[in-house]
């Protein structure tokens, strides 16, 4: 059961990491018995537009290693780190310095005294290409990721500055995926955290966002914060006050929203955690809003992430939550003087009032993924597609809103096709969540005097 919002077990790492290595290694080596997943081959893809070459095609899967790489321990102030290396596959992996070092929830919850998060400054940086290869080694028995291409949306000359890549994704809380969401067509083996977390990381690493907005995060302190901090991200987590994850046996704590940004690109100016209200009542839904300064341009902008109330019949409730969020963002952006990007799972189709509030707000927002349509006015046909005991659900619920006069959308990542998703829908052995990730490249309008 959940013990504390700061639950990464630094004490456990010092004391019990050897036994954890053995336990997690055996779990990661375990093959999925049924149904069989086709061998995972590599498809051509690269790490964003960094110029890094794509991994070789049809790389033979590595043999199951006796240990999944190295253990790196931060032993506390004034101590030095120890490292024990083990071979894995091609011999280049440090999985216990990266993936497997993120403790499994069941081990951590047995030690309520472990409530101190690690000092990321004491942990070695991770090469994203190396971590991506480690993920693929763990996933070598699974099908490959599907290829998704960016659509160029530039209408004028390209900006002289690097674009800001923003990723929006409801990653599916582990406790909900295994315990409450009833994905009747998804094999239980496809939801095991030891491999599913590698699928999530692979998706993030493949696109290398500058800013990452996540919902349904219930492994923040033991997985995403320690790993992403070593990739150069600064993170913030705001859990739901009454998370449904806590109703699931052997949960890993509450789920919530998480926001990460690359520290070498942005400076944090202000951060606000917002517990959304509806009809003056505090609700179970939250948001994070941060004002960042772009180090390259000196320009300020606000990035926000949220997750509104789910379920049919709660449309007015979502509308009220959206109005509350807009009012908060109005204040944070000083009456729309600061450009704004809002990412979230709104749990609302474009026909709902909350969508219309954002589209008509005085913050002058537009939905970035509308630009993929032929007329630039239509949202995608779906951003989530699943089959539950209640039936098949295909909806457009996820959005990236932006200040349409202050920011330009240079490109957007195309969605998976129905053929790629497959008849059993999401999640699956191929894809770790029931929601698709959305990724956009933004640039500032060069005319700083233009109205937002």
TrEMBL record:
CDD domains: Deadenylase_nocturnin. Its main location: cytoplasm. Its cofactor is Mg(2+). Its EC number is 3.1.3.108. Residues 167-435 form the Endonuclease/exonuclease/phosphatase domain. Pfam families: Exo_endo_phos. The keyword Nuclease does not apply. It is an enzyme of class 3 (hydrolase). It catalyses: NADPH + H2O = phosphate + NADH; NADP(+) + H2O = phosphate + NAD(+). One of its GO terms (molecular function) is NADPH phosphatase activity. Residues 25-89 are annotated as: Disordered. This is Nocturnin. It comes from Vombatus ursinus. The lineage of its organism: Eukaryota, Metazoa, Chordata, Craniata, Vertebrata. The gene is NOCT.
């Amino acid at each position: 059961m959940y013990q504390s919002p700061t639950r990464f077990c630094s004490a456990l790492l010092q004391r019990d990491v050897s036994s954890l290595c053995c336990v997690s290694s055996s779990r990661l080596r375990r093959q999925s018995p049924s149904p069989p997943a086709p061998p995972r081959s590599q498809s051509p893809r690269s790490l964003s537009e960094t110029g890094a070459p794509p991994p070789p095609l049809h790389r033979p899967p590595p043999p199951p290693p006796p240990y999944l790489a190295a253990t790196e321990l931060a032993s506390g102030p004034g101590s030095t780190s120890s490292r024990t290396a083990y071979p894995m596959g091609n011999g280049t992996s440090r999985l216990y310095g990266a993936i497997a070092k993120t403790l499994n929830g069941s081990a951590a919850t047995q030690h309520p005294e472990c409530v101190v998060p690690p000092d990321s400054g004491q942990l070695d940086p991770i090469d994203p290409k190396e971590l991506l290869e480690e993920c693929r080694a763990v996933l070598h028995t699974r099908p490959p990721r599907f290829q998704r291409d960016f659509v160029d949306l530039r209408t004028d000359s390209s900006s002289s500055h690097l674009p800001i890549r923003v990723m929006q994704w409801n990653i599916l809380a582990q406790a909900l995926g295994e315990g409450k969401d009833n994905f009747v067509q998804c094999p239980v083996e496809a939801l095991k955290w030891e491999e599913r977390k590698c699928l999530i990381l692979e998706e993030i690493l493949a696109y290398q966002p500058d800013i990452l907005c996540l919902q349904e995060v219930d492994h923040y302190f033991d997985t995403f914060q320690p790993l992403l901090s070593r990739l150069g991200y600064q993170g913030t987590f705001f859990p739901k006050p009454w998370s449904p994850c806590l109703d699931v046996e052997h949960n890993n704590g509450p789920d919530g929203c998480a926001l990460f940004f690359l520290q070498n690109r942005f400076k944090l100016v202000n951060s606000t955690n917002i517990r959304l209200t509806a009809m003056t009542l505090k609700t179970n839904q939250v948001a994070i809003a941060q004002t960042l300064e772009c180090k390259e341009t000196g320009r300020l902008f606000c990035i926000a992430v949220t997750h509104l109330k789910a379920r049919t019949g709660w449309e007015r409730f979502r509308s009220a939550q959206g109005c509350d969020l807009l009012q908060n963002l109005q204040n944070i952006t000083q009456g729309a003087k600061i450009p704004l990007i809002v990412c979230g799972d709104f749990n609302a189709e474009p026909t709902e009032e909350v969508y219309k509030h954002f589209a008509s707000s005085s913050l002058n927002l537009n939905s970035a993924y509308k630009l993929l349509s032929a007329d630039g006015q239509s949202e995608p046909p779906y951003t989530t597609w699943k089959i539950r005991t209640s039936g098949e659900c295909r909806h457009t619920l996820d959005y990236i809103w932006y200040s349409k006069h202050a920011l330009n959308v240079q490109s957007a990542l195309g969605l998976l096709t129905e053929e790629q998703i497959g008849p059993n829908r999401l999640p699956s052995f191929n894809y770790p969540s029931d929601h698709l990730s959305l990724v956009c490249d933004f640039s500032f309008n060069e005319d700083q005097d233009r109205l937002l």
